[in-house]
Amino acid sequence: MKKTKESTIYQDIVLASSSSTRQKYIKKFIPNCEICHHKVKEQEIKRKQLSPRICASLLAKEKALSIKNLFPKHKIIGSDQILVCRDKIFSKPRNEEQAIRNLMLLQNNVHVLVSAVSVICGDKIFYETVKKAKLFFRSTTESEIKKYIQENKTAVFSSVGSYRIEDNKKYNLVEILSGDNETIIGFPIKNLLEKFKNE
User: Fold this and answer.
1) What is the pTM (predicted TM-score) of this model?
2) pLDDT of res. 2
């Protein structure tokens, strides 16, 4: 059967990510997208003390480049998110104590999420974007924070802020001050999907 344009626009696309959130999100739009874990040591790049925007952009690009040898002719999507609060860049917690500390530092403060997407194809940059969102984490108690962590360990340990926006309706953790949902979840791809369609 002859392939239509609609059936071929999303061919040869790979997501370089170990994030289950990004994997599930991309599959909504590109069901046949290949998934491959990136090979980047994120903390090494974060220790370079770059600006949040440059750091997120560099991490996204390096994630895509890290699997280029496996997919030399594919469009490879890399993505990253940086959370900044009180001029401090947060990282995914390694244990419950770090998660508690992260969430206690966020409470009653505004924080910024910087989300980047970089797509490479061979030796060329096919697409790049960096977007920001601003949120306010409400004042809460340590006991409430511990309860949230106990009930959402998978989400907590896979999120830079130690919380997931998808849980907000239930727990009312944050108020969104600016930014769209794709930026907040760390994967702004709306414009990228349009670029794929318009190639």
Assistant:
1) 0.90
2) 44
